Sequence to fold (73 residues):
Amino acid sequence: CGEVAEIQEMYVPPEKRGQGIGKELLDTLKSALKKRKVKRIEVTSGLKRSEAHRFYVGQNFWVTSKKFVCKEY
Fold:
């Protein structure tokens, strides 16, 4: 599908949440990536982070897969 961007870490302190900061960060990122013709942005978020999941869905992200991690090998 072309170039893909991945958000490695995005954190807004609890006392700053609900003020539009996360949306502003994503809007700025999306604008920059659009200029670079990046077709998709991916982000992973832990299963317990339901508030983050609602945020990303509200920003036009959708669930496409599960992430598997091997902790011991």
Remarks:
- The longest helix spans residues 21-35.
- The CA atoms of residues 44 and 65 lie 10 Å apart.
